[in-house]
Amino acid sequence: MSKAFFASERQSKAIRLACILLALVLSVAGVQVLMSYVARDFMTAISKKDASAYWQLLWWYLGLLVLAVPLGAYYRWTEERLGLLWREWMAQHLIKRYFNNRAYYRLRGSDSIDNPDQRISEDVRNFTTLSLSFLLITLNAMVTVLAFIGVLWTISATLVGMLFTYAVIGTGLSILIGRRLIGLNYQQYQKEADFRYRLVRVRDNAESIAFYRGEKREGLDLVDRLGKAVLNMLDIIGWNRNLAFFTSSYYQASILLPVVIVAPMFMSGEVEFGVVTQSAGAFAQVLAAVSLIIAQFERLSTYLAGVQRLGMLWDELDEFDAEEDRVAIEGSQEVDEHSIKVSLYNLTVRTPDGLKTLVNDLSFDLRRNQSLIIMGASGTGKSSVLRTIAGLWPIGSGTLERPPLRDIMFLPQRPYMIDGTLRDQLLYPYHDQGFSDEQILEMAGKVNLSDVLERVDNDLDRVMDWINVLSIGEQQRVAFARLFLRNPKFAFLDEATSALDENNQEWLYHLLKESSTGFISVGHRTTLIEYHDRVLQLDRSGSWKITEGAELGRSKPALVYALDADKTQAGPLFNKLFGRDQSRKSL
User: Fold this and answer.
1) CATH superfamily of 336-556
2) Of 179, 302, 353, 374, which is most buried by a Cβ count within 10 Å?
3) Could you tell me the pLDDT band of residue 145, with boundaries at 50, 70 and 90?
4) How far apart are CA 531 and CA 491, in angstroms?
5) Which DSSP state fits 352?
6) Strand order across the 357-366 sheet
7) Is pLDDT of 391 > 50?
8) Residue 341: CB partners within 8 Å, gap ≥ 6?
């Protein structure tokens, strides 16, 4: 995952920042070494009561301090800039792959990848920040060891040997004590994400919960998920405590080691007093460098858990890409995406796991200006046929011909309402189609969204919480406005008028027929039959039958009317069309 970033289109900027960072690492380490020698001589001057050397070395130390401050500040700034660049690229890269080949849709059924949204947001941030942090800590540790090991060696070879023995034993014990933290941190990521996801679901389904009076049930579920996260966190806290007992003892004991070895040398006159303080400082620096795992074990366990989660998502997206290529090359389902019609020949529709066959050897042709309705009991695969045509369910066999996806449009039962303006809602997903405000307002009125327009004073740039502001029926009419504005060659309607009254339904299907768009509907209402040329009846056994619509329904003219109960246009329009004096109630 790291290699992909440094080989990407951001390569030059990333490498430039990395080189600057490396230079700063070396500079900071060099200044620290110089400061250790100045500090040594400074302490010796004090012990000898040498005032001249004291003031000279004090100015040297202050000069090095002035140099160290900007180096440290730019070191931190460069690290954060490179980390932000890395995070931006990696999140964009994963988002692109997440939407490629509809991986976001197919991941819904994955048992191994939970909460991909958290992995792309939080896990990417942690990965890039901590990867860079640990890289720099490691580089600093290497530079520190190289810089200060010579200092310690000149003082005492025994001190060097004791240091490395102490660090190796301490590292081994810390891994033994703290390795359980990696699994616990992985579980904590998952449990926190599950808790947050449930809170989002409550917000998105607030009205349904309120109607059901399900507050107590939802509250209990949230408390349960919070409890699981808290219990796991208690385990993490307990293991951190055990690790802290060891690390605290490890570092407290390390303070005595250099003094125990060098102090007798000073008392016997082998070294000066400044060497004692220098050895303690150098020993602490080198010990911290070689004890990297001990010092950072808590962060490392969190980091490794995040890497594991992010790596699983990365690999799963690789699998989807490879699977898509394999299906395109070797798959038994032949797909022609450059046809002028929708044609199925001996198409077998199966569930995504391939274990259940829903429809056997389905064949039909649909051209522009033609229509078909798919009917049948629940579970017979009505919506699954649409999913297969759309490529959401690639499992199956047979031949499928259809226009490119840009020339077809699918209307689900529950339209998707995005965050944004009313204009964004009506033009989704193509916000740059170039329609004027007059055209958009005219189409909104045509699908009977006049009440919605009145609520916003015909302001298409009004931003509201549309999923809660609009009823399901209004949302379905918004979906039809999108359809008519886009004017595709074919439309697929999956219970797209289920929340509409029959008058609204009749009017929208009338507009759909006038638009010359070929369409396939999925529905249960028998009143839908009259708007379609043919009826595809599916059976639970996987068999099917196509019947001409005229045999099952009757044709009748579409009425042009206003839909809202408080409007008065319906009667006059009826009179104008048919020359009859009818009351609104009769109409």
Assistant:
1) P-loop containing nucleotide triphosphate hydrolases (3.40.50.300)
2) 374
3) confident
4) 14
5) T
6) 333-336, 396-401, 342-350, 357-366
7) yes
8) 365, 366, 367, 368, 401, 402, 403, 518
Q: Which residues contact 71 (CB under 8 A, 6 or more apart)?
A: 24, 27, 28, 31
Alpha carbon of 445 to those of 491, 564, 570: distances in Å? 21, 12, 15
Q: How far is CA 500 from the centre of its chain?
A: 34
Cβ within 8 Å of residue 533, ≥6 positions away: 370, 371, 372, 548, 549
- Identity of the amino acid at 525: R
Would you state the structure tokens that stand for residue 318, as one six-digit string?
């690789």
Where do the domains of the chain lie? 2-326, 336-556
Report the amino acid identity of residue 146.
L
Q: Amino acid identity of 475?
A: Q
Q: How far is CA 215 from the centre of its chain?
A: 28
Give the H or E element holding residue 28: helix 11-48
Largest Cα–Cα distance in the chain?
Answer: 124
- Rounded mean pLDDT of the chain? 81
Which CATH number is 2-326 given? 1.20.1560.10
Residue 515 CB-half CA count within 13 A: 23
What value, to the nearest 5°, has the Cα angle with vertex 213 and ends 209 and 214? 60
Tell which wins on pLDDT, 374 or 329. 374
Q: Residue 555 above 50 pLDDT?
A: no
Closest CA to 415 of 402, 426, 404, 403: 426
Task: List, for residues 204-252, the tens digit of each pLDDT value.
Answer: 777 678 877 888 888 898 999 999 999 999 998 888 888 888 888 877 7
Of 123, 56, 120, 48, give the one whose Cα is nearest residue 91: 120
Indicate if the pLDDT at residue 330 is higher than 50. Answer: no
Q: Are 118 and 3 in contact (CB under 8 A)?
A: no
Q: What is the mean pLDDT of residues 243-263?
A: 76
Alpha carbon distance 267, 533 (integer Å): 107
Nearest to 163 by CA among 284, 265, 292, 281: 284
Nearest to 296 by CA among 181, 128, 145, 147: 181
- The helix or strand, by DSSP H or E, that contains position 496, with its residue range, turns out to be none
Contact by Cβ (8 Å): 224, 194? no
Amino acid at 482: R
Q: Copy the structure tokens of residue 38.
A: 């100045």
Count how many Cα atoms sit within 13 Å of the Cα of residue 470 in the half-sphere of its side chain.
30
For residue 362, pLDDT over 80 is answered with yes
Alpha-helical regions (H) of 179-214: 180-204, 206-212
**Most confident of the following: 201-205, 284-288, 363-367, 376-380:** 363-367
Q: Helix, strand or coil for residue 542?
A: coil
* Order of strands, sheet of 534-538, starting from the edge strand that comes earlier in the sequence: 408-411, 490-494, 518-522, 371-376, 534-538, 544-548
**The residue type at 227:** G
